[in-house]
Fold these 2 entries.
Entry 1:
Amino acid sequence: MADETITLYEAIGGEQTVRNLTKRFYQLMDTLPEAAHCRAIHPQDLAGSESKFGDYLVGYLGGPPVYMEKHGHPMLRRRHFVAPIGAVERDEWLMCFRRAMDETIDNPKLRDIIWAPVEKLAFHMQNQEEKPS
């Protein structure tokens, strides 16, 4: 019997896990005082952001291309350019994502595999220079 390769999407539990992850991510961003800067650059109502981010993560992790089917190419940097994303916002976003991942994805090895490209993506999304101290 040949080894079957599965996607990260399948390995973490598919759609339900991705939706749990994004729901928890936005709950944390919305409630943690230490995420206030990141929260401030998001819409008042986070439902649309949560839905789109969940759709994006489904495809990003190897599931069906839900985001592309609904919204076209993600063009993430261009879509986020309207929001001032500096080091503080980026780091708060990463903190929320890391905590949400720790709470919703059981396998630490899978979390580590997901973390590296997500962290790289967050740095790529930064569009404001760091302010000198």
Entry 2:
Amino acid sequence: MDKLLNLELCAKYPKIFINKEGTPATTWNFECKDGWFELIDQLCESIQNYINDNPNHKIQQVRAEQIKEKYGSLRFYYSGGDELIEGMVWLAGSMSLHICEQCGAKGELRETKLGYYYTTCKLHVEQ
């Protein structure tokens, strides 16, 4: 992911993107391309708002462990949360199968001749 987009996500969600020392990360190893930035941003916003808006439920703060593309879809591995957050993450992964990982336009799941899966729009199918 582009460095500026990476920095923006880390700055907006310091409770989700924590480094190994337990402090807010300034950058993160996003193993996906820029097209999924909005999806990741919306997912993190939904997660953090839900946690912040429900202090009496004692929902454990979500901490990102790994965010990547796998088999053409977004994978968001994390610790903490609850069943509702699990559903949010599942929904974002499902939505990613219809969003071009390169540019964020409407995309579809494709397969290479070698059996690798990826999600792109028609414009980026060759890349």
